[in-house]
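Example S7 (structure tokens).
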């Protein structure tokens, strides 16, 4: 296999055991073998024999290199939009009120059910390309706007199909327990039965990489979520939870008891919840886009998460209701300005910790043996990624060893 040598760059490896900060290596070299990294380190330390074996040499002309970015929480595939609700909220209506009146998630469910797979794919592809243009190489997509077998299947198939047609990895998450569909009004427990049936079927069809639920007053109770989680666990699927977004329902502690990969949102997380997450090794996925767009005032307890040593990831939450956002770079900036993360924590949040939130051990840091997913930026240093509000200093993405 041809070895490719990259030089003329500084590399933010983001390796936890690398040099501080950012695992940064000045005047670095990377050796790529097929889809993997064979060697990463200071150019001066590159073994002579390895250098001699490299058939292809590439000068990065002073680029900053980071791992490919990972968006570990999106609802990217949906029909329609909710600009009307944005206007209503600016006029004083609350997100919860709109949801209780049959708008919110339910209105996107209507639009998603009405859309054909081809229409959904075309609309979603536009959003996906915006993420690609900012160096995203792995992106999670949740279902949850179908809420009936044929529509959840359609949505997950579109997500898989986008992953095949574009040069990035799509990970699918089944979020059947996102909202109560109208045909089950007043019968939430019956709908949970239906969620279990859908899960078993869609898993059998190979469409599900993980399982999520929305634990909230306007969604599902901890007891209902526990039923979904028990079924998912029996199928060997990893778990995630929308927890403590609008109130403290104890969702994070519940998810931690099930060994969930991540708990997401967390503005109302309690100390008990944070401690449970730390014990379970669950990642806290913070979503500054939803916080900003819903004009929330209660901040996720970042100091508490730090104190308990809970790893923090950052994601776009791309969705039509609470975060119509297709820029992970903007999320880096907001994680710093709104949540007071350091730029290094924010970058770890879309690389190393985002990989952890998806249960992926082969990416998120640049080190020998990891996937050769990396991005060249026209930047001097990694803090500029979070700093440059609205800029896109992207130059090139290498996905599985190849330029895309
Ligand atoms: O992550 N919290 C629940 N789900 C989404 C919002 C979905 C919607 O409003 O369409 C979220 O914020
Ligand atoms: Fe979400």
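Recovered sequence:
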């Amino acid at each position: 296999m041809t070895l490719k040598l990259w030089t003329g760059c500084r590399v933010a490896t983001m390796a936890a055991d690398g040099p501080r900060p950012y695992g940064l290596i000045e005047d670095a070299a990377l050796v790529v073998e097929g889809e993997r990294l064979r060697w990463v380190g200071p150019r001066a330390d590159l073994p002579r024999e390895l250098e001699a074996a490299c058939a292809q040499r590439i000068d990065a002309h002073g680029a900053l290199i980071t791992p490919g970015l990972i968006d570990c929480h999106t609802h990217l595939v949906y029909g329609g939009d909710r600009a009307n609700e944005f206007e209503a909220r600016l006029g004083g209506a609350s997100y919860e009120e709109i949801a209780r009146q049959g708008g919110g998630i339910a209105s996107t469910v209507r639009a998603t059910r009405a859309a054909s797979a081809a229409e959904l794919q075309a609309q979603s592809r536009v959003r996906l390309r915006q993420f690609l243009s900012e160096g995203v190489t792995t992106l999670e997509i949740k279902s949850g706007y179908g809420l009936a077998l044929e529509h959840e299947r359609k949505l997950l198939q579109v997500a898989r199909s986008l992953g095949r047609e574009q040069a990035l990895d799509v990970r699918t998450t089944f979020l059947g327990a996102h909202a109560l569909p109208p045909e089950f009004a007043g019968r939430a427990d019956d709908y949970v039965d239906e969620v279990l049936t859908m899960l078993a079927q869609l898993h059998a069809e190979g469409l599900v990489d993980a399982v999520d639920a929305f634990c909230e007053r306007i969604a599902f109770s901890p007891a209902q979520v526990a039923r979904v989680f028990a079924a998912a666990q029996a199928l060997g699927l990893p778990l995630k939870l929308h927890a403590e977004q609008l109130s403290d329902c104890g969702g994070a502690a519940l998810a931690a008891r099930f060994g969930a990969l991540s708990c997401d949102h967390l503005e109302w997380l309690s100390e008990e919840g944070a401690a449970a997450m730390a014990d379970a090794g669950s990642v806290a996925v913070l979503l500054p886009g939803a916080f900003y767009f819903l004009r929330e005032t209660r901040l996720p307890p970042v100091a508490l998460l730090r104190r308990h040593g809970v790893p923090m990831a950052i994601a776009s939450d791309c969705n039509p209701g609470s975060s119509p956002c297709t820029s992970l770079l903007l999320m880096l900036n907001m994680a710093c300005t709104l949540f007071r993360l350091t730029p290094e924590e924010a970058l770890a949040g879309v690389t190393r910790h985002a990989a952890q939130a998806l249960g992926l051990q082969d990416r998120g840091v640049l080190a020998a043996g990891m996937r050769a997913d990396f991005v060249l930026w026209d930047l001097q240093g990694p803090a500029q990624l979070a700093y440059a509000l609205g800029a896109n200093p992207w130059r090139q993405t290498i996905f599985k060893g190849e330029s895309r």
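Notes on this example. Residues 149 and 197 are 9 Å apart (CA to CA).
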